[in-house]
Amino acid sequence: MLWIGSHVGFNKKTQLVGSVEEAASYGSNTFMFYTGAPQNTTRSPIDQELVKKAKDKMKEAGINVEKVIVHAPYIINLCNEGNFTFSVDFLTEEVKRVNELGISYLVLHPGSHVGLGIERGIENIAKGLNQVFEAVGPDNKVTILLETMAGKGSEVGSKIEELKEIMDKVTEKEKLGICLDTCHLNDSGYDMSQFDDFLNTFESIIPLSKIGCVHINDSKNELSAHKDRHENIGFGTIGFDTLIKIIYHEKLEDIPKILETPYVNKLYPPYKQEIEMIRKKEFNEKLIDLIKE
Ligand code: FE
Ligand code: FE
Ligand code: ZN
Questions:
Q1: What separation in Å is there between the alpha carbon of 108 and the centre of ligand 1?
Q2: Which ligand has its closest atom nearest to the C-alpha of 187?
Q3: Ligand 1 is an ion; residues with CB less than 5 A from it
Q4: Which residues make Cβ contacts (< 8 Å) with residue 233, sequence separation at least 6?
Q5: CATH number, domain containing residue 129
Q6: In this structure, what DSSP letter does residue 264 have?
Q7: pLDDT tens across 136-194, in order?
Q8: Beta carbons within 10 angstroms of residue 241's beta carbon
Q9: pLDDT at 151
C-alpha cells in the first residue's frame, strides 16, 4: 500500500493535533515533523491529552501512526567533538520525546566531520549513538533512521558504505535503520533513473529491510553536484517518471514516502497538489500556478 505524506509543522499549542490536521488537509496518510524549531533547542513537554486526541484524528483521517516520522533537529552533530556532549544529550531527550509521542521512527542526519576526516566522523557518530541508546534505556521503542546525505561540505553518510560502517559499530542494531532521500542520493552521485541498479548496490551493503522511510524530493542540481537543494516533484533533474517508479517500487512497498519539496514562492505548500499527482501518476506542469490561485 502507498503511504504518502509530507513534512508538516508542529507547534507548542496544538502539538501533534495540528500536525495531523495539516497532513490530512493534503490528503496524506502519513507525515513527518520536527518536535520544535529544527535550528534551536527550545522544546515544550509532550501533552498526553493532545497525543490521545491526535491519535483519534489519525484514525478518522486514515493516517497510520506506525508510518509517521519525526525528523531530528539538524543542530545535532554527533561528529563534532566540540559539542559532542550537547548533541548526545539533546538527541537522548529527542528519542525520549518521540517515545512519549508513541511514534516509531526518528530520522537523523549522521553529521558533518568539519575537518576531522570521514573515519573519525564515523567513529564519533557510532560512539554518540551508543551513548544515546544507553541513556534512553531498554524501554526504547524508537528506531533511529540514518539519512543518506548529499555530500555537501563535510557531510558523513553520502555513501552507503559509510552508513554501513556506522551501523556496524552501533550495539543496538535492531533500533537502527536507514532513510533514503532521492535528492540527496542524486546529489551524492547515485543515478535515480537506474533505481534497480541502485537498490542492488544498496542491498549488497545493507539489507533492504533496514529502510524505514524514503524522502521523495526532486533536485535542483545535476547528478553528483553535492549541493542538497530540493525541487518540486517533476520540476527537477530527477523528473516525475523516475520518482513515480521509486514511489511505487515493489521492494519499497509499505515504506512511508515523505515529500520535503520547497514551498512555492516560499509561501504556498505544494503538498496537496504533489500528492494528487503522485496518486494519479500524472504530472501537471501547471502545479505551481494552481497553488497560487
Ligand atoms: Fe533530512
Ligand atoms: Fe531528507
Ligand atoms: Zn536535503
A1: 7
A2: 3
A3: 147
A4: 216, 217, 218, 240, 243, 259, 261, 270, 274, 277, 278
A5: 3.20.20.150
A6: B
A7: 999 999 999 999 999 999 999 999 999 999 999 999 999 999 999 999 999 999 999 99
A8: 12
A9: 97
Q: pLDDT tens for residues 85-108?
A: 999 999 999 999 999 999 999 999
Give the Å distance between the CA of 35 and the centre of ligand 1: 14
Ligand 3 (ion): which residues have CB within 5 A?
228
**Residue appearing with cell numbers 512511508:** 256
146 Cα–ligand 1 center, Å: 9
- Which tens digits make up the pLDDT trace of 11-25? 999 999 999 999 999
* Pairing verdict, β 176-181 and 211-216: parallel
CA of 147 to the centre of ligand 1 (A): 6
Torsion angle of C-alpha atoms 39, 43, 103, 208, degrees rounded to 10: 20
DSSP 164: H
In sequence order, the 6+-apart residues with CB closer than 8 A to the CB of 170 are: 126, 129, 130, 133, 176
Of all ligands present, the nearest one to the C-alpha of 257 is 2
Total domains, the chain: 1
Nearest ligand atom owner, CA of 107? 1
Hey, what's the cell of 243?
520518482
Which protein residues have their CB within 5 A of the ion that is ligand 2? 181, 215
pLDDT at 4: 98
Ligand in nearest proximity to the CA of 215: 2
| pTM attached to this predicted model | 0.97
Task: Tell me, in angstroms, the distance from the centre of ligand 1 to residue 6's CA.
Answer: 12
Confidence band, pLDDT 50/70/90 cuts, at residue 40: confident
pLDDT tens-digit profile of 241-259? 999 999 999 999 999 999 9
Range of the domain at 75: 4-292
